[in-house]
Amino acid sequence: MSRFSDIILPAIIILLSLGLIMVYSASSSPFSNNISGLTIFIKQFKWVLIGFLFLFICSFMNHKKLRDFANLLYLVSIILALVAFATKNPNASTARWLTLFGTNIFQTSEFIKLSLIIFTASFIAKNKRKIHDFDFMIKRFYPFLLLPLIVILLQPDLSTTLIIGVIIFAMLFTAGIDKKQIKVLSGLLIASLIFKFLFMPGLSGKNNYQNIRLQSYLNGNAIQQDNAVDSIIDGGVFGVGLGDSMWKGDHVPEAQTDFIYSVVISEIGLFGLLIVTICFFIIFIRGINVVKDSRDLFGMFLAMGITFNIFFYYLVHVGYNIGILPTTGLPLPFVSYGGSHTLFNLSQVGLLLSISNRINNE
Questions:
Q1: Can you tell me whether residue 297 is helix, strand or coil?
Q2: DSSP letter (8 states) at residue 195
Q3: Which of 53, 118, 264, 345 has the CA that lies 20 to 30 A from 111?
Q4: Cα separation of the two ends of the chain
């Protein structure tokens, strides 16, 4: 079977096609002559083309060779993230983008996430018998996990920090870390969140947007999120029609990125929900099958990290769009507007195809 006849590719293409349509729609107001939707569409289309080029290249890579470069990729990703702090626009509130000559190149957290998945898969493959040893993990792995997470947290990007931590934890849990490590890591996470949201505002005298989002969610007064839920309800079974959602724009901010799911369901209704759900479950099931069929530990855990990455982002994005999770601003893979996550997600799909093709050949 050719690597390009894999069932995962039609699912990806459907999501990307839907994404291009909905990004255009979400960026254009039906109540004005705003033509920004076309500009956004063209930018996203360019990133999709570049992403497919990377998918093609990565699909022909020997994934096992990545083990030799795992440490280097890890180091380079952190260096680039630090460069982003040094080169950021003085007026910018975050240092999430690597900026060269005044142009944003890509979000450094996306590169860190991929390099950390590769680094963790390599570490597990080399040290599978020692994963359960807490002392060994404290000395040899957890400091290397903590460093990039701190860098991303300081950008600041709490939601990405948390989800990367969850992806790596899921990989380690599957690899066999013991109950003590699970308890300690869970305890540290809970303690960090309590400090962040309960004590930090009082100590710093500031109540930033992350705290405001959580407080609004807990108080049932998250207006933007409520509008997203109303948008979904408004769509009903058949949707209100492409371009006709009244909830985007001022009602649902960043509709083309943070709340794209609500626009999809609002405008094409149950059909949109089924398309998105079926495609992501195809990706998840196919990814898990690649994990099960992998004959080398590195390929197994690399495929696992990639699959968890795509599926967890889907779950969180849908979760806060329908009101069961606090708003995080995480994009919907392959659908939301954005060059960085489109490029890196398609590159990861290429690696998944590479692993699958090697399994078939062997």
A1: helix
A2: I
A3: 264
A4: 12
Residue type (1 letter), 119: F
Task: Provide the 10 A C-beta neighbour count for residue 95.
Answer: 22
Q: For residues 211 and 156, what is the distance between their CA atoms, to the nearest angstrom?
A: 13
CA dist list (Å): 85 to 49, 88, 93, 108, 190: 29, 6, 11, 10, 28
Q: Which tokens go with 317? A: 């994005």
Residues 6+ apart with CB under 8 A from 197: 210, 211, 214
Q: Where are the domains of the chain?
A: 3-361
Q: Would you state the structure tokens that stand for residue 93, as one six-digit string?
A: 């509130």
Who contacts 35 (Cβ-Cβ below 8 Å, separation ≥6)? 28
Residue 15 tokens read as: 């999501």
Locate 85 and state its tokens: 């702090």
Which residues lie below 8 Å from residue 142, measured CB to CB, with a gap of 6+?
Answer: none
pTM of the model: 0.93
Written as six digits, the tokens of 354 are 């590479």
Q: Which helix (H) or strand (E) holds 99?
A: strand 97-100
How does pLDDT run across 7-66, given as a tens digit for each residue? 999 999 999 999 999 999 887 755 444 446 788 899 999 999 999 999 999 999 999 999
